[in-house]
Amino acid sequence: MIRRLRLFGVEIGAVLASVLIFWIPLYFVFVNAMKDKRGASLRSMSWPTSNHLWSNIKEVIQARDHMLIRAFVNSTTLTLLSIAILLLVCAMAGFVMQRRSDRVTPWIGFFVLAGLIIPPAIVPTIWVLDNLHLFKTMLGLIMVEVALGFPFGVLLYRGFMGAIPREIDEAAVVDGCGGFRLFFQIIFPLLKPVNATIIVTSSVAIFNDFTNPLYFFPGSDNATVQLTLYNFMNQFVSQYNLLYTNILLITLPPLVLFIFFNKKIVAGITAGAVKG
Hints:
Layout: H1 2-33, H2 37-41, H3 53-99, H4 104-117, H5 122-131, H6 138-161, H7 166-174, H8 179-187, H9 192-207, H10 211-216, H11 225-235, H12 240-260, H13 262-272
Membrane topology: Multi-pass membrane protein
Main location: membrane
Family: Belongs to the binding-protein-dependent transport system permease family.
């Protein structure tokens, strides 16, 4: 009985912590996005006396020749292409690393793990992209995002594939399947839980990325949604109502995606923790 009470207390504490950490800041952004310029400048959590949300949204969208719309297009393109490449290369690398067992495999695993530990170097990456004529291009930024998400994706796929029996591979080979056919027709369809995890977690991270587009994809025409906050503060230093409205607009898509796919994320991470 005492153990159950303690567990119940831990659950209540976790719920309260989530409210304090997440929902209160979201409420703060929402109520200030509904205020006018003077009310939002106070930056209080009080409910507004009049609702200016729709007028604020129209002003934010029209600012700087509809920069927010261009930013949504850039961020969506970046996210979709990066996720498609991540799913393919991470799944293939994880499959090879899990199935093969030789002297090289531990070293490959070490370098993949090092990708999670070693911080990215901005200046050398810019130099490499510039020499490849990919600096300030969408393709160059996609390569950066894929490289940064690669280690986590490979480890997740590798852990999940440990639960897939090798007998499936052997039976497919006996039936005449080659390597690519074995992977794409038999193994890859079994990876739906991990695919969902990678799609949601990486989509939120890439869509909300601020640093990489700032360094590797500069320019007003290349702005992503997070960079609109940076530009918006420069243009409207004291118009916090527009800033909070901008924050609200770019927060809603990842939030909705996370809420709808929350169970799939948990299932994929749990499945990826099982090793055969």
